[in-house]
Design a protein that fits this description.
The complex is a heterodimer. By secondary structure, chain A is α/β, with parallel strands linked by helices. Chain A has 5 helices and 5 strands, in the order αβαβαβαββα. Classes of the chains: A alpha/beta, B alpha/beta.
């Protein structure tokens, strides 16, 4: 399987969002942005990390994909009432248009993203 | 036809990884498909204190990372992804994921069990908004709040104790007046001043689905039928597990609860198909018993391959069976 290889080359396409850059990089972004809320202690977050990497590769140029560490960036997580991780929020024009909580299948996530591009 | 594997293992908890370790060391070059919940239930736990050999305990995710590395060291190929279909009656047995199809002479099912939910209407809409099945993941969000844990087993006790690190008060709700948890876990929980108890009680409702956040639960006393509203910001559900057997429903013998029935070790009702771990065990459900049964499945698969019926052995081999 090549998933591992793909994930490696895609890693640099995954952005890092923070309390500091969130307005600029997510809310004021020209296109849709998928934000993966995660933390170091969260096993399921680690499970979906390779899939997020792969999606960033596949959707390169179509949407922005990035991660936000809730431990280091509590303000954004609080603002969007994230109380369970992993949570994936899809933003468009500064608004949340999709929300996926927990471990999701890649095909399902793609269908969610495809509605907005 | 794609190359025929000797052994495919579905699942990557202690059962699957131990089956992989043993079959790899038997030169069977196993392929393991890890599944959606890679690493299994131990990925959601903190300190594991009852896995022999780790006298000071070991973190669940760390134990799983080590088991995985050990299985890989002897030649297990681990594939990410989720199996979408299995045909155990085909010869060779076919296993499909979203991306690929595999065929194999033997199949080891180690798909485990997943957390059960209460089945309340608001539960799903409030998942990630105050309802959780993973205390280690989500406890952080409830610092200084009152929360509830539903369940009376070891997992519920572990979650309740863990959550007292964050919450101001943790109320454990259990439908009977006796807990199912082991004595040591009960004692630990009962000694914790932050834990309150609502026994003989069931959760009737989680509020507030309309506002999109948990504000309270409605608890019904099973003896008096009296209902009480308990204000909480979070509800952690730990009421046990259901076996992940949807893939083979109708293809293998199962009991009324959906667990695969095994006989003579790890054998299922179909020759060449073996099951280990929580998918076939509703009694013990421990990391160590899962690992032990994974070892049995690997040895059973090896014996089966040594005595494989001729018409099946004639299928061209990719890797060769060890003599």
């Amino acid at each position: 399987m090549m998933a591992g290889d793909k994930a490696q080359t895609a890693t640099d396409k995954v952005q890092t969002f923070t309390d500091g850059n969130f307005d600029e990089t997510v809310l004021k972004s020209g296109g849709p942005v998928l934000v993966d809320f995660w933390a170091e202690w969260c096993g399921p977050c680690k499970r979906i990390a390779p899939m997020i990497d792969a999606l960033a590769g596949e959707y390169n140029g179509k949407i922005t994909i990035g991660k936000l560490n809730v431990d280091e960036n509590p303000s954004v997580a609080f603002k969007y009432q994230v109380k369970g991780i992993p949570t994936l929020l899809l933003f468009k024009d500064g608004q949340v248009v999709e929300s996926v909580v927990g471990v999701a299948q890649k095909d399902y996530l793609k269908s969610v993203i495809d509605k907005h591009i | 036809m794609p190359p025929v594997h000797n052994v495919i293992i579905i699942g990557s908890g202690p059962a699957g990884l131990t089956a992989a370790l043993y079959s790899a060391r038997a030169n069977l070059q196993p392929l393991l498909i890890e599944g959606l919940e890679a690493g299994g239930q131990l990925m959601l736990t903190t300190m594991v204190e009852n896995y022999p050999g780790f006298r000071d305990g070991i973190m669940g995710p760390e134990l799983m990372a080590d088991m995985r590395a050990q299985a890989e060291r002897f030649g297990t190929t681990i594939v990410q992804g989720n199996v979408t279909a299995v045909d155990v009656c085909a010869s060779p047995i076919s296993v499909r994921t979203a991306d690929a199809e595999y065929v194999t002479r033997t199949l080891i099912l180690a798909t485990g069990a997943s957390a059960r939910l209460l089945g309340l209407p608001s539960e799903r809409t409030l998942m990630g908004r105050g309802v959780s099945t993973c205390a280690t993941c989500d406890g952080y969000f409830f610092r200084g709040h009152d929360i509830a844990v539903v369940g009376g087993g070891d997992s519920a006790m572990e979650e309740a104790i863990f959550l007292t690190k964050f919450a101001s008060k943790v109320t454990v709700i259990h439908r009977r007046d006796v807990l199912r948890a082991s004595k040591i876990m009960q004692d630990k929980a009962r000694a914790n001043a932050k834990i309150a108890w609502l026994l003989d009680s069931e959760v009737d409702e989680i509020r507030d689905g309309g506002r999109g956040e948990v504000t309270a639960i409605v608890v019904r006393n099973n003896k008096t039928a009296e209902k009480t509203e308990v204000p909480v910001a979070g509800v952690f559900v730990a009421i046990g597990h259901t076996p992940n057997t949807a893939l083979v429903r109708g293809q293998l013998e199962m009991n009324s609860n959906g667990y695969i029935i095994t006989h003579d070790g790890s054998k299922t009702s179909v020759p060449g198909v073996f099951a280990c771990g929580d998918v076939q065990d509703h009694i013990y459900r421990q990391a160590i018993t899962a690992a032990g049964s994974g070892c049995m499945a690997a040895i059973d698969a090896e014996h089966y391959l040594e005595n494989i019926p001729e018409h099946l052995a004639s299928v061209p081999s990719q890797l060769g069976i060890r003599n």
